[in-house]
Amino acid sequence: MIPGGEGGMRITMAAVRGPLLAAILGTVAAHAQAQTAPVRIPREPALPETVSVTGTGRVTLAPDRATFTAGVQTVSVSLSAATQENGTRMSAVLDALRRAGAADRELRTAAVSIYPQQGPQEGRPPRIVGYQVSNSVSVTRADPAGVGRLLEAAVDAGANTVSGVSFAVSDPARGRDGALQAAFADARAKAEVLARAAGRALGRAIAITEGTAGSPLPIPMMRAQAMGGGMPVESGTEEVSFTVSVVFELR
């Protein structure tokens, strides 16, 4: 008990201890509750419901580049004779190609090879009985219509090997825009079918990814053509495909 003055008020320790203890305990409890209360993390907005599809678009193109290889193969008992004969005949082939319209930029040596010809010997290793010399030129023509004339000119001039006649589209971007539009239309048509099947409506496209162009597929023409005279050559057409993957929103 705290003594008071005369006529003053007397305050006991019990009267002070009660309210003070209650205040302390209340503060401790509030602090503990603040420490154990779960932290609320704001939720990210839910992603819209979507449908993902892939569409394909195709375009048919006429080749604008032709390539073939023509060469001369000679055999002689001596290397010098085989080489000299081969060089003379190959020069004639190149001159004939140029006269037929081939530019220097369209001619490129493809391969040169020399192989010894061997004959058997009883009881001994084979011996060289001659040499085979080969020389070939690759011809790339920007105008496929002239390939038949060039082939005929090479053969008439002495070429005894011809191979690798092929046609190609030089610019891979040719027809790309139309094919990509067709691919997107194909993807949208598929997505609309899926949306109706799910009882939903198709919304906007929210993601588009272009796929890789497919390999060209040769489509032969119905008849052979004598392109610009000379040997009949058939260029046909090529089909190139493009794909797109599209994510559409569902409503």
Describe this protein's structure.
A hairpin with a 2-residue loop joins strand 3 (107-121) and strand 4. By secondary structure, the chain is of the alpha+beta class. Helix 2 (79-99) packs antiparallel against helix 3 (147-156). The protein has helices at 13-36, 79-99, 147-156, 176-197; strands at 50-61, 65-76, 107-121, 124-141, 161-168, 202-210, 217-219, 237-250. The strands form 2 sheets. Strands 1, 6, 7 and 8 form a 4-stranded antiparallel β-sheet that branches. The two termini are 79 Å apart. The protein contains 4 helices and 8 strands, in the order H-E-E-H-E-E-H-E-H-E-E-E. It folds into 2 domains: 50-62 and 172-250, Protein of unknown function (DUF541), domain 1 (Translation Initiation Factor IF3, 2-Layer Sandwich), CATH 3.30.110.170; 65-168, Alpha-Beta Plaits (2-Layer Sandwich).
